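Why does this matter for the project? Reviewers at the last site visit asked to see concrete outputs rather than summary tables. In response, this paragraph embeds two records directly. Each consists of the residue sequence and, immediately after it, the corresponding structure tokens. Nothing has been edited or filtered.
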Amino acid sequence: MKIFQVGGSVRDELLGAEPKDRDWVVVNSSPEEMIENGFKPIGKDFPVFLHPETNEEYALARTERKSGVGYKGFEFYFDSSVTLEDDLKRRDFTINSIAKDENGNIIDPFEGRLDLQNKKFKHTSPAFEEDPLRVLRFARFKAYERLHDFNLHEETEVYFEKIVASSELKDLSRERVWMETKKALENKFSNEFFKAVLDYHLTDPWFVGLKSISCDGNLPELKWADMQRINNFQLCASLPTPNSFLRIQESLNLVMDLIACENKSEKLKLLEKLNVHRNYEILMHFKQYDSLEEHWSYLEKIFKLVMTIDFSVLASVDASKVSHQKQLLYYEALQESI
């Protein structure tokens, strides 16, 4: 049994960054031997194990063969005859196809270090085109601080074009597309993810509403809401966006409607929908948005006035009159300000 550190963690170390986690490949072993050594099996499609102490993932070296459509359309082969180079060859980019042994020696059969120096995303092998997810992984990598200024190798662009032409992007699961999007939003240069989607014509079918880019905010949810704003809240309706994202997105939509509204009674209805008491903390985050800068003093004043309203008095009001009385409370507090 030989163990090698592989993938993104080796890449990050070579770039001078501390990796968040590490992945490992085990050569010349078997599932039985891994279990005998205390590793916990977790893989469904291929043998992946958790280390008994560090909980890091250890996978048996494997090769793969395309057998269907989408990123799941592969058959995997593993046994003690699969070499480290075999395993590295199946990976997406050369910069992710580098390994390190237990003595710190770098194994780089596909010249990934050279591509790191040249700041290039280059495919490891022609099999790149078999997995449509790889083009979205590239877009996600562009959001990383250490990789945002890397460019796609001209030879790899050909494979991008083939993947787009194959229409296999539609065969990706909506959950996996959202996962890649969310990871991009969690990184510093999220705008580069969406720029790559546009530049390399990856919009169909998951990003058909994407026309413009704006990723203001220090939270993934805020960036997502800003992307919705700049695209008229028509972006990625088919993706399984979590409620925490939808809540901020919907709040920003109402705020934009509030700014555009000129009718006082309609403004009061919008503020009631906005539920300032429940969403006050979210609304205060909106101060980060450049798009709201000229309106912020007005908005902040309105939100703070709403927070002074004592809605507890509604407890003693007849149920049939609560809605009307609530509107009166809003009006009394805000009539001079809206």
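We now turn to the second protein, recorded in exactly the same manner.
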Amino acid sequence: MIKKVGFDNNKYLQEQSEAILERINMFEGKLYLEFGGKLLYDYHAARVLPGYDPNIKVKLLKKLKNKIDIILCIYAGDIEKGRIRGDFGITYDVDALKLIDDLRSYGLDVMAVVITRFNNQPQVINFKKKLEARNIKVYLHSATKGYPTDVDTIVSEEGYGKNSYIKTKNRIIVVTGPGPGSGKLATCLSQFYHDYKKGIESGYAKFETFPIWNIPLKHPVNLAYEAATADLGDINLIDPFHLKAYKKTAVNYNRDIEVFPVLRSILSKITEGHLPYKSPTDMGVSRAGFAIVDDKIVKEASKQEVIRRYFRHKYENILGISDEKPVEKIMLLMEELDIKPEDRKAVIPARHAVSGVRRKTKTVPQISCGAAIELKNGKIITGKNSSLMSASASLVLNTIKVLARIPDKIHLLSPNVLKNIANLKKDILGLKLDNLDLQETLITLSISAATNPTAETAMEKLKELSGCEVHLTHIPRPGDEMGLRRLKVNLTTDSIFPTNNLYML
């Protein structure tokens, strides 16, 4: 059974492309379109808006291909600190390279990369050299002098004027980046400033999916956005400027509302008072809210996303990646939505699987791990760790056997082969954890499939796990987490370490 759909991609593509083309017609020059959120692989949007294509934005750009240029921004500090993108587990500089490759696969080229707030960091200089060696044009922009209070300095040769002008060909300039704080707005305004100095009357607009401006403030979709940005402290608000100007409510978030007076002053200074926008909502072009076709489905999906974010932030907190504030924020959101962690259907079965391990093996709690998956038809399957494999590996094998209708008593992998691999890991390689993690298990399965038709049939079912819900009772080992990530499941975990060892492999 296929998951129910609450969002219409075709309607969205049509409305969104029309909205962007309408906006460019407001200006004689270019339109600098700041793309907020993720340009590709927007799995948050896909989870809260069932039916949403996570790559719909790049398909939108492909539709407008002959009218756009793309500029990619990355903050120098993110390169220096090795900031990591949570859904892929890769650093932002690597994500920028991946984004360029991915755009090329859609026939879209990045015209230039802008490294923002550059301060002569050695890591950043090396990154610049790497890009230039691949014939990618790189611009270095320093922090804007006077920002955010001294508008006279900002809008001068000492402010935006110090940044190199990026030459573009088309009228619509898409400015994107690997994450928040990449310097997209500053790059847009810097270009905007240079255009006006040249007598080109350009414009600026923002394309950001969340929060969705034309649905209620407390709609679960918008609360899920607050949960997703709990570490940034974003809060959704009624746009007071929009309410004052039009006597209509519209939803925006605190950072956009707070910066609007500054932005308005900067734009007014550059354009000598010719302002087309009366509110931050006016600046946006998103039409996502108009493509919601089943509000009930979207509400339920968004509640589930809030729960996922709760588990994610608890996990990051125990690893020392973040403090307790995001967890506390999400707990308040859950209370507001009248939901609890156990409302995620895979949670309780996973925990019950742990008790089964304890009764059977009498192992200590730290190494008794359970796992559960909710399939797209609602069926729950569980797995547990053993001396041969991890709970994640057990779960995946159990699941593909069910999907392939293979009797439980039939082994997909020979116990003797598993024991030999365990001996290799422990006795020859000297590893403490000798049971197989998920990645090792998948490789073993692929080898077995070469001579075992049953294993081959089961392996073909792996792709059906994409988009399913998985919960683990313990923090996964790297090989388990990466394996689940590559299977594209939606993973949550209880914040309990699977062993007393400080180093897990």
